[in-house]
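Supplementary Methods, section 5.1.

A reviewer requested that the exact input to the structure prediction be made available. We therefore reproduce it here, unchanged from the version used in the analyses.
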Amino acid sequence: MSSQIRISVLLIAFSIILFTGCKSIKDTIIPRQPKLDQPFSCTFELTAFADDRDSKMVVSGDITRYGTGIWEMNIASPDTMKGLNIKYNEGGATASLGSLTLEIESGKLNEAAMFKRIFDAFDSCAALHDIELFDDGEAAVYNGADFTLAFDKATMLPTLLTFSDGITVNISSFCGFTEQTPEASESIRQSDGMPTDEVPANE
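The structure derived from this sequence is encoded token-by-token as follows.
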């Protein structure tokens, strides 16, 4: 009789350990890491308030990452900026609007330029082997030096980029891809001084 009691107690104890152990493991599961260290494209909507908070600027368009430090941005709105194209790489940036083109060397770029801040934020995350994410209840969040990047917890795709000065960038239509378009590849290589028959390796 005593042996049966001991066996019953052991079975109950084992059941308790098994169920609580499973719950503990489930609670500590880390969401799969976002994949930013690859070429991708996305649409964005940037919102920036004036110092008095009474007026704001909203800019929208699309962004393409070809590799580390190789980016392109196209502005769709507002009408005063529509058609503006910005190509960015380690050599600098080229901004084109209609027949006007402005080239800026890397050393002369303003570090506060909004397009550069967006590109650098993504590149800094892409360079991390593991991103330490925090759960804010609705999204998985990464805190950078002067920005916060939120990810959809189900897909681990970026949804919102917020800078310390209150500028926000809503991200949608995020799509990863493995090949550059021939036109974009050639223009990026030419602006970087690379031979047009060589394709830069994507990170």
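The mean pLDDT is 79. These observations are discussed further in the main text.
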